[in-house]
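S1.2 Input.
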Amino acid sequence: MAPRGHSADDVARTALRILDDHGLPDLTMRRLATALEVQPSALYWHFPNKQTLLAELSDRIVARMASGTAVDLRTEAGALREAMLAYRDGAEVVSSTLALGLGSSLAHDRLTTAVAADGFDADTARRSATTVLHYVLGFVWHEQQRLHYDSVGAREEGAAPHGATNGDVGAAGLASNDFAFGLDLIVAGLRARGRV
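S1.3 Output.
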C-alpha cells in the first residue's frame, strides 16, 4: 500500500516544488519526506533511490518542450532551453540523469527528428542531435549558475557574463541572443557539412 495515500505523482510534484524553491543541493529525501509528512523510507515505495526520482523529475522537465510533432532544430532547442529554465537547476537535473543513462530520450528524439526533417541521414541526425543536446545543456547550466549567483549577490551589480557586453538588451535578452548565436553556428556547420 502507498504511504499515507501519496501517489508517485504527489511525490514527484512535491520534489519539483522543493527543487524550484531550494535548488538541487537541498532536494534531499529527508526534506521531501518532511514536506509529505512521511518517513524517508516511505518514499522508496515509489522511487527505489534518489537517482530514479531525479530521472522522473528530468522527464517531467523535458516533457515541457513537447507539443505536437518535432519542428525545426532551432525551435526544438529553444523549447528545451525554456523547459529547463522553468525549474531552478533544471539543466543540472536533466544533465545528471542523461549522464547516468536514465530517463526518457524525448529531448534527443525530438532534436533528431528535427535534423532528419532537413534531409539528413539517420546517423548524421542522431549525432547532430547529441551535439545540440550537449550545447543546450551546457548553455542552460551556465545560465542558471549566473542566475543563482545574481540572486545571492555573488556578482557585481550589472556585471555582464564573461565574454559579453552590457547594452540595452538586459541579462535575459543577452543570454537569449548568445544562445541563438551559438545555435546558429551549429546549424550553419551542419548545413555546410551537408553540402560537402
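S1.4 Remarks. Residues 165-169 have pLDDT under 50 and may be disordered.
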